[in-house]
Amino acid sequence: MKIRKLVGKVHLWLGFASGLLVLFLGITGCMLAYQREIEYATQPYHFVAHQNEEKLPPSKLREIADAQLPGKMAHSVSYEQGKASKVVYFSFEPEYYFTVFLNPYTGDVIKVKDMDKDFFRILIMGHYYLWLPPEVGQPIVASGTLVFVLMLLTGLILWWPKNKAARKQRFSVKWGARWRRVNYDMHNVLGFYMTWVAIFIGLTGLIMGFQWFSKSVYWAASGGESLVEFYEPHSDPAQQVSHTDMPAMDRVWLKMLEEHQQVGGSLEVHVPHDDEASIETAINPDTDTYWRGDYRYFDQYTLEEIPVTHSFGRFSEASLADKIIRMNYDIHVGAIGGIVGKTIAFFASLIAASLPVTGFAIWWGRRKNKETKKPERVRKLKVN
Fold first, then answer.
1. What average pLDDT does the segment 288-297 reach?
2. Which helix (H) or strand (E) is 304 found in, with range?
């Protein structure tokens, strides 16, 4: 009982320390669960009708998009059946993030979008960084996530029934009782059911938030191997050879096009940002998730493929530990389970957001009870 009381104190003070942050992350997590579905339903510029014509090469689409954003450096060009091609412009210094949507068959510009003004982009920046500078907000969110995981574990200990008579009360909410009892049951019962999903949301958040945690997970999953940090392989300007007038990124695109047509999904070609950069391509057969993407890197002069040793290389060469790291984001948002997984993640986030509120109500109610009982004890002492 002393241990249980100590765990209760730890649970209470952890709740005070992280309650507002958990409430915020839970609500924003709910709003982000169906991001893609909402965007596709409300933003028609994502779609282009299929045509029996050849699509324009990435260099041509980039040239058209460059005219819309003079002075900006293109990052990538993407293709997907039935969707508009996207030319993404992204930079940290100077900071900007734009997406140009184009018809891949005609090159017509459908929309130029400043992603820093996009609703979901703003929401993500709050969810990841609390709208603070990343070096400030990210450690706060990661630390709050760690506290949340500890609260889930201490909550399970407190939930565990003391005896057989109390066991039934731990699995159902007594909706017909007084509001305090309903509130108590919602905190305990819904918290118990939510824990088995939220623990994965929390742990995947820790993988994104702490390098030491992601390295530890990789080490355990790989049987003792170290996680290789992502890096971009370099091209060798000294190996430059003469080609046709076709730009290197177009030649790589043609090289990958046949495989893309066989696999389906999306094809993305990155623009080399300097003379030593490689040309990265990504073929994702399932555009609802990211973990199955096949990432390839090519020398921009010789067009030879450059092998990599980090997790984001060829999917066929990815180890179990690599796939776990790749799956991390898809697990975090529930996309790994399709629309059902997103729905489960939505309700888990919603219940997680409610726990600080119901927990505070439990604490406040007990505190008020102690205050009302104290004068009664004082009166009895005076009478005696």
1. 95
2. none
